[in-house]
Fold this sequence. Notes:
By secondary structure, this protein is an alpha+beta fold. The chain contains 4 helices and 6 strands. A 6-stranded mixed beta sheet has the order 2-1-6-5-4-3. Helix 2 runs antiparallel to helix 3 (41-47). Residues 7-14 have low confidence and may be disordered.
Amino acid sequence: MLNKLLKQRAHTIDMNTMDSKKELVLKYENQLFDAMLNADVEMLEQLLHEDLLFNIPGGQTITRAMDLDAYMNQVMTWSSIYAEEQTVNIIDDNAVVVSTVKMKGKYYDHEFDQRYRFLRVWKLVGQDWQVIAGSSCELLEPPE
């Protein structure tokens, strides 16, 4: 279902070229950001593999269930997500994406407006790409 939606948006993508695979994975990555911004749990369920492990900036490792629960209970809310830079490497049926992202939102009662570095591993599962692993860290601004 998700693959059909993204294919419609991408028009015609030749899956045999490396650049086309990278372009498609970036569409999935950006769809993930949209799902996060809109707390679209249904879309997140499609994009996140059931065995996902993700290290968040505080050092904790969360699962898909924990991540979905945070969105369902509005523990995590976003007011903006902007990808400043994205790099993709394709390795067989896996894609490694490194992104620098400006994010503004709220986690419980803690408001933040910060840049983060994300590393996500996507895997082609059937006809769709899903996140199987990832990590994020806060980027510290250099002193003036």
